[in-house]
Amino acid sequence: MTGLNGKTALVTGGSRGIGRAVCVRLAAAGARVIINYAGNQAAAEETAAAVRDLGSEAVLARFDVADSAQVQEGIKQATADGSQIDILVNNAGITRDGLLATMKEEDWDLVLRTNLKGAYSCMKAVCRPMMKKRWGRIITVTSVIGATGNAGQANYAAAKAGLVGLTKSLARELATRGITVNAVAPGYIDTDMTRGLPEQVKAKILGEIPMQSLGTPEDVAGAVGYLASEEARYVTGQVIHVNGGMFMG
Questions:
Q1: pLDDT digits (tens, 9 = 90+) for 106-116
Q2: Which of 90, 88, 124, 95 is nearest to 112 (CA)?
Q3: Is residue 14 a contact partner of residue 27, using CB atoms and an 8 Å limit?
Q4: Which residues belong to the active site?
Q5: Which residues are registered as beta bridge partners of 64?
Q6: CB atoms within 10 A of CB 3
Q7: If we measure between CA atoms, which residue out of 246, 180, 183, 192 comes closest to residue 217?
Q8: Which stretches does DSSP call E strand in the chain?
Q9: Radius of gyration in angstroms for the set of CA atoms belonging to the chain, rounded to a whole number
Q10: Per residue in 114-124, pLDDT tens?
């Protein structure tokens, strides 16, 4: 698969899970991939090796998206060779679950700062160069939880719902500049996070999914790959749900 030759993609949280699958998908399409990670360099190196195995260039960029100064400096260093980010995939995210009545304020703030403000910081850092070039793809990974809510995840749900509003607003702002802005909302995906759930919780989740199976990171990466492609040039301000029918909005 080709189509992104000559394009540079930044994938936040690209060291594992959905982020790694997205990096591989974009590399398979010919993109040069900047792999952002916050701390797990070994995992990021594994992703980089997978990208290089496909014949694409991989660049590691360590910064915490929750820190806007780190975002600016990290992107500056990653593009110090004169390259420009053509595709941004906002994938980095964390959870700090707990019932709202007992949730610590710092857990609320950290999730919103990482999952929502982190996307804002990355979008702001790349949109001006995209506007000058009059081409760009901004894709944000939200969640089915942002649409349905979930007990014990008020902070996560608020951040993910906020990403949808952010996506639609920026799509309107950038539509005349040849830049599309969309989101992908995964349901329950087979990642390290879901593998650690108790069996009874997994069974309950599967009972809520019409397809009766978890998705794979590659399922999500497929939707991201489409939105990054030229085939999706007339698609903007949209949310693609990848959830096996769990939520049909």
A1: 999 999 999 99
A2: 95
A3: no
A4: 156
A5: none
A6: 14
A7: 192
A8: 8-11, 32-37, 58-62, 87-90, 136-141, 179-186, 239-242
A9: 17
A10: 999 999 999 99
